[in-house]
Protein backbone atom coordinates (compact mmCIF):
# COMPACT_ATOMS: atom_id res chain seq x y z
CA UNK A 1 0.00 0.00 0.00
CA UNK A 2 2.85 2.37 0.85
CA UNK A 3 4.42 1.83 -2.58
CA UNK A 4 1.07 2.51 -4.20
CA UNK A 5 0.75 5.88 -2.39
CA UNK A 6 4.31 6.84 -3.36
CA UNK A 7 3.52 5.96 -6.96
CA UNK A 8 0.41 8.18 -6.92
CA UNK A 9 2.42 11.08 -5.47
CA UNK A 10 4.87 10.85 -8.35
CA UNK A 11 2.09 10.76 -10.95
CA UNK A 12 0.28 13.71 -9.36
CA UNK A 13 3.49 15.73 -9.20
CA UNK A 14 4.27 14.87 -12.81
CA UNK A 15 0.84 15.97 -14.04
CA UNK A 16 0.97 19.19 -12.02
CA UNK A 17 4.30 20.07 -13.61
CA UNK A 18 3.03 19.20 -17.11
CA UNK A 19 -0.13 21.25 -16.51
CA UNK A 20 1.85 24.27 -15.31
CA UNK A 21 4.23 24.08 -18.27
CA UNK A 22 1.31 23.79 -20.69
CA UNK A 23 -0.37 26.82 -19.12
CA UNK A 24 2.80 28.94 -19.32
CA UNK A 25 3.51 27.93 -22.92
CA UNK A 26 -0.07 28.72 -23.92
CA UNK A 27 0.22 32.19 -22.41
CA UNK A 28 3.55 32.86 -24.09
CA UNK A 29 2.51 31.62 -27.52
CA UNK A 30 -0.97 33.12 -27.58
CA UNK A 31 0.07 36.66 -26.65
CA UNK A 32 1.69 37.60 -29.92
CA UNK A 33 3.08 41.11 -30.01
CA UNK A 34 1.20 43.36 -32.40
CA UNK A 35 2.98 46.44 -33.76
CA UNK A 36 0.15 48.98 -33.69
CA UNK A 37 2.22 51.39 -35.78
CA UNK A 38 1.36 49.22 -38.80
CA UNK A 39 -2.36 49.74 -38.30
CA UNK A 40 -4.68 52.63 -39.10
CA UNK A 41 -5.72 55.01 -36.35
CA UNK A 42 -9.15 56.58 -36.73
CA UNK A 43 -10.60 59.57 -34.94
CA UNK A 44 -14.09 58.95 -33.59
CA UNK A 45 -16.80 61.28 -34.91
CA UNK A 46 -20.21 61.95 -33.36
CA UNK A 47 -22.39 58.85 -33.70
CA UNK A 48 -19.55 56.45 -34.56
CA UNK A 49 -19.79 52.91 -33.23
CA UNK A 50 -17.41 50.00 -33.44
CA UNK A 51 -20.01 48.12 -35.45
CA UNK A 52 -20.24 51.05 -37.88
CA UNK A 53 -16.45 51.22 -38.22
CA UNK A 54 -16.32 47.48 -38.93
CA UNK A 55 -18.82 47.98 -41.77
CA UNK A 56 -17.19 51.18 -43.05
CA UNK A 57 -13.79 49.50 -43.38
CA UNK A 58 -14.99 46.01 -44.36
CA UNK A 59 -13.29 46.26 -47.77
CA UNK A 60 -9.93 46.73 -46.02
CA UNK A 61 -9.87 43.76 -43.63
CA UNK A 62 -10.69 40.05 -43.67
CA UNK A 63 -12.43 39.86 -40.29
CA UNK A 64 -16.06 39.39 -39.41
CA UNK A 65 -17.65 42.40 -37.71
CA UNK A 66 -17.45 40.60 -34.35
CA UNK A 67 -13.75 39.79 -34.85
CA UNK A 68 -13.09 43.42 -35.90
CA UNK A 69 -14.75 44.69 -32.71
CA UNK A 70 -12.91 42.19 -30.51
CA UNK A 71 -9.57 43.23 -32.08
CA UNK A 72 -10.33 46.93 -31.45
CA UNK A 73 -11.39 46.21 -27.86
CA UNK A 74 -8.26 44.20 -27.11
CA UNK A 75 -5.67 46.38 -28.85
CA UNK A 76 -7.10 49.64 -27.51
CA UNK A 77 -7.72 48.12 -24.05
CA UNK A 78 -11.39 49.09 -24.03
CA UNK A 79 -13.81 47.85 -21.41
CA UNK A 80 -17.57 47.50 -21.91
CA UNK A 81 -18.34 50.93 -20.43
CA UNK A 82 -15.78 52.62 -22.67
CA UNK A 83 -17.13 50.87 -25.78
CA UNK A 84 -20.65 52.15 -25.15
CA UNK A 85 -19.45 55.73 -24.66
CA UNK A 86 -17.05 56.41 -27.53
CA UNK A 87 -16.33 60.13 -27.53
CA UNK A 88 -15.85 62.34 -30.59
CA UNK A 89 -12.15 63.09 -30.99
CA UNK A 90 -11.06 59.85 -29.35
CA UNK A 91 -8.53 57.92 -31.41
CA UNK A 92 -8.58 54.15 -31.86
CA UNK A 93 -6.48 51.67 -33.77
CA UNK A 94 -8.45 49.48 -36.16
CA UNK A 95 -7.33 46.21 -37.81
CA UNK A 96 -6.64 47.83 -41.17
CA UNK A 97 -3.04 48.07 -42.27
CA UNK A 98 -1.90 51.61 -43.04
CA UNK A 99 -0.51 50.44 -46.37
CA UNK A 100 -4.00 49.22 -47.37
CA UNK A 101 -5.52 52.68 -46.84
CA UNK A 102 -2.53 54.49 -48.38
CA UNK A 103 -2.64 52.26 -51.47
CA UNK A 104 -6.31 53.03 -52.09
CA UNK A 105 -5.75 56.77 -51.59
CA UNK A 106 -2.84 56.81 -54.05
CA UNK A 107 -4.78 54.64 -56.52
CA UNK A 108 -7.82 56.98 -56.33
CA UNK A 109 -5.62 60.05 -56.95
CA UNK A 110 -4.01 58.42 -60.00
CA UNK A 111 -7.45 57.58 -61.44
CA UNK A 112 -8.53 61.26 -61.48
Characterise this structure.
- The protein has helices at 2-30, 50-56, 65-75, 80-84, 98-111; strands at 39-43, 91-97.
- With 112 residues, the protein is mainly α.
- It has 2 domains: 1-32; 36-111, Roll (Membrane-bound Lytic Murein Transglycosylase D, Chain A), CATH 3.10.350.
- The chain has a two-stranded antiparallel sheet with strand order 1-2.
- Helix 2 crosses helix 3.
- The longest helix is centred in the N-terminal third of the chain and has 29 residues, at 2-30.
- Mean pLDDT is 80; it is low at 105-112.
Question: What is the percent of helical residues?
Answer: 55-70%
Shape, please?
elongated
Number of helical segments? 5
CATH class (first level) name of the largest domain: Alpha Beta
For the termini, the CA-CA separation is 87 Å
Keywords for this structure?
Membrane-bound Lytic Murein Transglycosylase D, Chain A; 112 residues; mainly alpha; disordered C terminus; 59% helix
List the topology elements.
Blueprint: H1 2-30, E1 39-43, H2 50-56, H3 65-75, H4 80-84, E2 91-97, H5 98-111
Could you give a quick summary of the protein structure above?
It holds the Pfam family LysM. Mean pLDDT is 80; it is low at 105-112. The chain has helices spanning 2-30, 50-56, 65-75, 80-84, 98-111, and strands at 39-43, 91-97.
